[in-house]
Here is the input.
Amino acid sequence: MRNVCYRKARCAGVTFIELLIATLIMVMALMGLMSLWVVAFSFTAQSSDTGVGYNLGRLEVERMKDIGFFYASDGTQTRFFKQTSSGTTEVASAAGADFQVTTSVTTGHLTGNNDTSFQLAASASDQEMRRVRVTVTALRVKEVVFDTMTYLSRGGR
Here is the structure.
């Protein structure tokens, strides 16, 4: 028995195997797109953390400059912030916080041209400076997203 199509209408169409293969190809393409979406989402979240961390660190440096040399006391201070839809707000503890801002102030004087030549002051002098180091950590990923240092002097802010 020979299967011969006498009319074109009976020969046109898609077999079940062809339909399964087309579906398989579409599913594979969609899986690739979904994995690409996950990677793009993680990059966006990391970029957002870096941007917020930079702004928190910059605000902390400006806050220390506003306090000034005479009112910035030696020691380490840790503050916590939570990111909300309306912005970033300070919270009391690490529970539920997204960012940790650590500010360290030490008093000393420079003996050379680089940071390694900063020595702690044994006694008060006109050459005294306060070194302010600000570190911002994203608590979700436990990664430092911003770290900077500046100096406060007696004569300026």
Remarks:
- Residues 12-153 form one domain.
- The chain has one domain: 12-153.
